[in-house]
Amino acid sequence: MDKISFQSEPATAPSLPAPAVQLVAQRPPMILVDALVHRDRPGNFSVVAATVPLAGVFLGPDGWVIPEYFVELVAQGGAAVNGYDAITDNAGKTRGFLVGIDNFVWQGRARAGEELRVELVKTFEFGPVTVMSGRVFNRAEQLLAEGEIKAWEQA
Q1: Could you read off the pLDDT of 4-60 as tens digits, one per residue?
Q2: Is the dihedral of CA 109, 101, 48, 34 positive or negative?
């Protein structure tokens, strides 16, 4: 009698750039990231694109973002990376929570409508805990902010 194999289909990574709305739980007006544009899983490096919203809670009265915007931007970038990996691994959707920030430094500012690039490096992953360092750049390649986020994810 022949053996029957019950192997699952191999995971297929979504093509990049992948719209963030397919990868993260946030929805307008709270979604800050536009797309995951690069994922190097063996190198733990990713790039996310974002456009500063034209209105909302992250903008000051002068049209510049408040510093907390950069923390949430890095956190949502990390969520996009983890969402992409979950889809690639056929792992199903997870819910994530920001549980810590470390070493955040604000070196610049961003205005409403400005296009930004977030570079992320996953530095630690154990069970439901992920740590990522993030760096936010504007189109002129100026480093605007950098720091580390810790997230807890559960199925």
Answers
A1: 433 444 457 789 999 999 999 899 889 999 999 999 999 999 999 999 999 999 999
A2: negative
Give the max Cα distance, the chain: 75
Place of tokens 């604000």: 106
DSSP label of 20: G
Domains of the chain: 18-154 (3.10.129.10)
Closest residue by Cα to residue 153 from 96, 84, 85: 96
DSSP 8-state code for residue 22? G
Exposed/middle/buried for residue 123 (C-beta within 10 Å: 0-12, 13-18, 19+) = exposed
Q: What does the block give as tokens for 113?
A: 């409508």
Tokens of 118: 């977030």
Residue 133 and residue 145: Cα distance in Å, rounded?
11
> What span, in angstroms and rounded, lies between the C-alpha atoms of 10 and 4?
17
Per-residue pLDDT tens for 111-153?
999 999 999 999 999 989 999 999 999 999 999 999 999 999 8
